Amino acid sequence: MFGRGRLFNGIILELARPYRFDSSNKELLAAFRTSISALLEEANAFAPAHSRIYEEMILVANSTKTFDYTLKGTPRRHSILAAHQAEIDTAYVEFESASAYTIAGPSEWDLGSVVNWTQDLLQCVLRCPVPCDTDVFWLGCDSLKALRIRSILASVLQNVHSTDHVVQLPQDFVYRHPTAQAMANVLVSRTTDYPSVSLSIKTAEMTDLVRQMTEGQGAGVPFKLPARSSEVVLLTGTTGSLGSHILYYLHQCKDVRRIYALNRGDPDDLDSLRCRQENALKIRGITPEILRDGKVVLIPSDLASDNFGLEPSLFQELQNSVDLIIHTAWPVNFNYTLASYVRSLEGLQNMVNFARYTTSEWSPRFIFTSSVSVLKNWSGGSPVPEIALPNPEVAVGLGYAESKWTAEQILAEAADQGLSVSIFRIGQLSGSPNGYWNRNEWFPSIVQAANVLGCLPGIDAPLFHWLPVDSTAAVIVEMRSNLHRYVHLANPRPVPSNLVLQEVAALLQIPIVDLEDWFSRLNTVLKDTPTDARGRLDRVSSLLNGIMEDIAGRPIEMDLKNGLQCSETLRDSPQISRQDVSWWLRSWGAYRG
Fold first, then answer.
1. Is the distance from CB of 434 to CB of 284 less than 8 angstroms?
2. Rounded CA gap, 167 and 190, in Å?
3. Which letter does DSSP use for residue 305 in this model?
4. 553 phi and psi angles, rounded to 5 deg
5. Under DSSP, is residue 558 helix (H, G, I), strand (E, B) or coil?
6. Integer Cα distance of 41 and 54 in angstroms
7. Which of 29, 102, 197, 488 sits at 20 to 30 Å (Cα–Cα) from 522?
8. Average pLDDT over residues 93-108
9. How distant is the alpha carbon of residue 47 from its chain centre?
10. What is the spatial distance between Cα 393 and Cα 503, in angstroms, rounded to a whole number?
11. Cβ count near 536 (within 10 Å)
């Protein structure tokens, strides 16, 4: 495999002698790639998004450059890649430029023709049917595919303009316009001007979405009295960090006899979900043995579909028995606009309906994990009280925050109708006890970029109220019977941010520089680096540009009264330590001391 420092990876294969061919023959190479496409799809299904391989990035070793092997029979990676460097460089150049020469634009530029053409393009990239109003990120689009779609669209637009008119589409074009219809609208207008959406338009969009989700739902069908126990739990998002730890702590509870763990997946492919779940537990230091005793039931599902996409008998089993819902599943992508969260909100409304139409004696209680980001524009004084936030302006400016605010309003309306709801607004979470912390989150991304730039940015926030993810999970499980509608979760013993940054800098042996200077260095490196070689730095820049204003801006101090009152775990939470920092850095491969 090759691709270090690039935006995406590739592989080079040495074929057995009977199957070798002249790899410079484009037709033979294309036929070979097609012949192994099923294997490639199977491998990509298990690979992280950033490690997936495009067909065009499968190379076949030149017959004059055979692989070099060690005495043990393993390939010598460095010598092989060095021998094929020219072919690798060519593959990246051809991949980047292919769209400009091999993909023709629409035959006609009326809206209907462009919508059809855009659907065909998306189906080619995503390899599945693409309805014109369906969000591509719910069809398997990831950051690399979004990059490719944007590149193709920019090339097609460039071809219809004169050569002296440079067409530019923003890096987050697909995130801003995540459906074929939305993309086509922009293509037809041929605009390169993307004015910001006014505050009034955005708040109207958010409140309209709440109305659309709740209007007419359960008319005349009241919720039953809330369940008194939590013997049977429906838990979503158990392959994520918080969900994995909640699953572990629920499994430890003697009064919990069954946990239905619902995650996105094909109902006919339980083995794939089981493999994902085991891996999610292992990398966080949690034993997968908790899946062996029958207490945990893994269920591939689609929350936004009727009956969660389940067989009627299984759905009925859930409705007959579940007395607590803990909903943690939510896409965390700061490039998404609110439009890309509509399906998540539909899934939430389906879960509210599930609780309303339960066939058991009681309605299940409902716990939802919201986010501190819904307070991003809070102006009512500090600390922020644990109260409802009816004004959408408080969350405007980040699609993720807007979606969480919208979810809170949907649940608040259900609570007013009798559903027992607890909304946990969770602050920044740090890593698992073994140090695992998703390296794609903002702080791990900064540290990894700092390792490349040779300096770490200073962050103005005076305190880090970070709470370890396992402690957060323990608090939620401990408070699963609480009656508070709103609970804020953050570390009651914050640590000065400069102490954390100084420890990181000391371990990496790099200086701390002004934040503005650090961004200037990052942008300089990006400007001086070829597009195909920017690698993680490009993704880091895209992530941080969207949220850095909030991170480095006025800190949000939350009132923690309800959590401290009910949770011994929260009351006893320790400060982030030097040992924690070193474990994180080891997890990211940034420090080996």
1. yes
2. 9
3. S
4. -85, -160
5. strand
6. 9
7. 197
8. 64
9. 15
10. 37
11. 18
Cα–Cα distance, 521 to 515 (Å, whole number): 10
Q: State the helix-helix crossing angle for 270-283 and 241-252, rounded to 10 degrees.
A: 90
pLDDT in tens, 409-460: 999 999 999 999 999 999 999 999 999 999 888 899 889 889 889 999 998 7
Give me 182's structure tokens. 């939305």
What is the separation of C-alpha 447 from the centre of its chain, rounded to a whole number of angstroms? Answer: 19
d(CA 469, CA 434): 11
Task: Set out the domains of the chain in order of their start, with CATH numbers.
Answer: 9-100 (no CATH), 109-189 (1.10.1200.10), 197-421 (3.40.50.720), 427-593 (3.40.50.720)
Q: Which two tokens mark 560?
A: 């923690």
196 or 304, which is more confident: 304
Beta partners for residue 327, in sequence order: 236, 368
SS3 288: helix
**How distant is the alpha carbon of residue 328 from its chain centre?**
13
- Residue given tokens 């969900």 in the structure block: 243
DSSP conformation class of 88: H
Token couple for 1: 């495999």
Q: Which amino acid is it at 568?
A: E
Q: 3-state DSSP: the chain helix, strand, coil percent, rounded to 5?
A: 50, 10, 40
Q: Are 14 and 66 in contact (CB under 8 A)?
A: yes
Burial status of residue 481 (CB atoms within 10 A of its CB: 0-12, 13-18, 19 or more): middle
Taking Cα atoms as reference points, which of 376, 488, 483 lies closest to residue 426? 488
